[in-house]
Amino acid sequence: MLRGTALTGLLVGCAPSRAPVTVQDTVVEPVPPRAEYRLVVMGDQGTGRPEQRAVARAMQAVCREWGCDLGVGLGDNFYPSGPDHVDSPLFRERFENLYGGLGFPFLMIPGNHDESLVWGGDGANPGGAEVQLAYSRVNSRWVMPDRFYRARLGKVAEVLAVDMAPLAAYLPSRRPQERPGGSWDAAQRAWLKQKATSSVAPWTFLLGHHPLFSNARHGEAGAYDRLPTAQQRGDAVRSLYRSVCGDVDVIFSGHDHALQLFAPQPECPGTWQVVSGAAGQGESAQRGHRPALFQEFHQPGFTWLRVNESEVKLRFYTVDGNGTPTLAFEQAITK
């Protein structure tokens, strides 16, 4: 695996903090270059429940049949909250024991449960994400080199990974600069826009725990959980995603424990949205009515995709209690 830095600079944000934030463009090449990549995508998997183990077995079956080169973890890697030190047995029990046998690395991002402060899922402790960064230095299968980073998939795709937890936390982040409008938020936002607009790869993917669009329980960015404050309802998440609409081809998110696929929408033309947050349990309920090509709210499951320079093939799998995968929907996206 190649890790490097290509850009270091200073950005100064606005209120609530004007302290400068050092921006490091962290780049990884998680697997050797090839003409085609096969990825398995899981989100909200870290429940420790039987459903998590069943989905892990189903992923193994799909990877044996169709092949897998790389995994993606979309956050909420642990419930109710993330480990507080790198030697926590949770890393072994809820990651390595379940997915290590697959033999390939996972691009990981944090979710709101990983950054819990007062109660599980409040999203107010960025130190939780930093424990998971430290774990990436001791387990090469867990790829999380920074809070926001990019991964190159040869000449086929570029993957941009961001940390959405501080931007839709139920409580204000313990670090003022990481609250919406702070200097850390400005740094991540500027980095994402620059990398999305400058990408020359045939495909550009964005990984962010919270979804832009969702018909499931938490709802859409800007209206999460029908909560009253701009931060809680995800106004900053919505504006961050919309700033790169059309510059990224697919947004992959979790947060809602459901499987959903949205074609490009009028509010975000040119960008598809995949919600794949059912790898630990499928327990959501339909709340919204945005037109979706596919949605499953009750069964656990995951997403598999094959990408080459001309096509992205998406497959959504549901999983029963025995770990048997069922192909529920597939969609090809072409340029």
UniProtKB/TrEMBL annotation:
For this UniProt record, the keywords arranged alphabetically read as follows: Hydrolase, Signal
The residues covered by the Calcineurin-like phosphoesterase domain are 38-258
Q: Does the keyword Signal apply?
A: yes
Which GO molecular function, any one, fits this protein according to its record? hydrolase activity
InterPro entries with a match to the protein in the record: Calcineurin-like_PHP (IPR004843), Metallo-depent_PP-like (IPR029052), Metallophosphoesterase_PAP (IPR051558)
Q: Name one Pfam family in it.
A: Metallophos
Protein name (Swiss-Prot/TrEMBL): Acid phosphatase
Q: What species is given as this protein's source?
A: Deinococcus cavernae
